[in-house]
Amino acid sequence: MWTCPNCKRSFPSTNQSHICNNLTVEDIFAGKPDDLQLAFDDVLVAIADWQPNEAGAAVKTVVFTNKRAWLIVRPMSKLLELSFYTDGILTNAAIHKSGPNMNSTTKFRHSIRLSGPGEVTPEIVDLLRQGYDYAMR
User: Fold this and answer.
1) Which residues pair with 57 in a beta bridge?
2) What rounded mean pLDDT belongs to the chain?
3) Which residues are CB-neighbours of 130 under 8 A, at least 6 positions away?
4) Is residue 38 packed enough to be buried (19+ CB in 10 Å), middle (13-18) or exposed (0-12)?
5) pLDDT value at position 92?
């Protein structure tokens, strides 16, 4: 992992192209409903023991990385969207949307939407773990 000396975000490749910013996770949630922050806290608790795992603030999102980006958290106006990747399509009632990532035939993006605290079930944790494990390959 490489840490940008300017913005302190971690990336899998040295000198990886990105847009530096000085945002914090708190900045990403500024002005959003408290329920979204509480839902995010539930996600943090659920994945706290998964290592390596680093979080960084990007433009409008919180990006979690291990060997590469594995979870993108985007607070919207009323929902918290969790996006993760696997090597195949997943079918699960908890998944809002699933499909190829940017016309790829080997990487699939899945989105889960939460509206507040208490919605991170063991089933959702298992799905997120699949994304975490895929990124560790």
Assistant:
1) 62
2) 92
3) 84, 86, 90
4) middle
5) 96
- Exposure on the CB side of residue 6, measured as CA atoms within 13 A: 8
Residue type at 10?
S
* pLDDT tens digit sequence for 16-29: 777 777 888 999 99
Domain residue limits, the chain: 22-136
For the entire predicted model, the pTM comes to 0.87
| Residue in the structure block whose two tokens are 């607070």 | 75
How many C-beta neighbours within 10 Å does residue 92 have? Answer: 13
Of 16-25, 33-42, 68-77, 113-122, give the lowest mean pLDDT range: 16-25
Peptide bond into 100 cis (omega under 30): no
Helix (H) or strand (E) run with residue 47 in it: helix 34-47
| Type of residue numbered 132 | Y
CATH number of 22-136: 3.30.1460
Tokens of 127: 């799905």
